[in-house]
Amino acid sequence: MESKEKKNYRAELTGVFGDPVDDNPTGVMEEAAYAARGLNFRYITMKVTPEGFPDAMRAVRALHMRGVNLTMPHKLNVIPWLDELSVAAEVIGAVNTVVVREDGTLFGENTDGKGFVEALLRAGGVLEGKKIVVLGAGGAARAIAVECALAGASRITVVNRDEGRGRELAALVNEKTGAEAEYLPWAGGIDVPGDTDILVNATPVGLAPLDGEMPEINYDTVLPSMTVCDVVFNPADTLFLKEAGKRGAKTVSGLGMLACQGARNFTLWTGEEAPLRIMEEKLREEFGL
Ligand code: NDP
User: Fold this and answer.
1) For the structural domain made of 113-252, what CATH number should be given?
2) Which stretches in the chain have pLDDT values below 70?
3) Element (H or E) spanning 174, and its range?
């Protein structure tokens, strides 16, 4: 007798926990990637408050989820729930991706900085021995500064308004990586040091609907020898990148970083290579680019 293959109607669950989370576009690219690979996976965007977070983490196990992204305000709260952290997540001190392994243990990774590094390398950038200036010292800046240092950058300069946060990030890079780091206070219209190779806006300045704004630096100190990157992905072509482009600098948008970190999450959860181009196209379509 011919044996029929047993049907499996059960969906593999992934998603994001955050609050606010309504405007998080990650699900659009992850669902497009699942469909492109013919996987019965779902990505659900879920509002989870700090009070509800313990129940949400118990649900990760109860629902046999494959993994989950964490966004504000859970990137730190999640750590006590995890069995193991990646080296970068441990140094950065924040997790944006949880992977549920087959044995049920939970692994924490931070794909924000890795997504940045990958997008930069794909755009032809190099990190080995390079001098990086990071504007900002929040979650994205921490991830970017640490991953650039771990990828071989020689110097990280942190420019931030809040001195405590800026100094803390510089100290972290000095202590935990092979790069040298320093803090520069952000007094409006700051000059970019002339020997900078890569300048990164890791603040939300320029994000729609405030896309008429740009970080307060002296744009005439941006040189054609510099690569200038933004974490802001909507719009992709920020005023910051436009002004840098006018000075002859090479520019890299935050859209590539978002797609690359999404692709890493996809691979961590499914074990398959991510359809990066499809993910990027879906984001462009979503933002009307
Ligand atoms: P945080 O709130 O953790 O940090 C924000 C940082 O920006 C702080 O250092 C803050 O400085 C600084 N900042 C805020 N407003 C200004 C301003 N007007 N002038 C100068 N500095 C300012 O945010 P995140 O790091 O989590 O996120 C930052 C941005 O990165 C967001 O727009 C987010 O969407 C984007 N992002 C993009 C990703 C991608 O894949 N492309 C991934 C992750 C984040 P201070 O310390 O002085 O208050």
Assistant:
1) 3.40.50.720
2) 1-3
3) helix 163-176
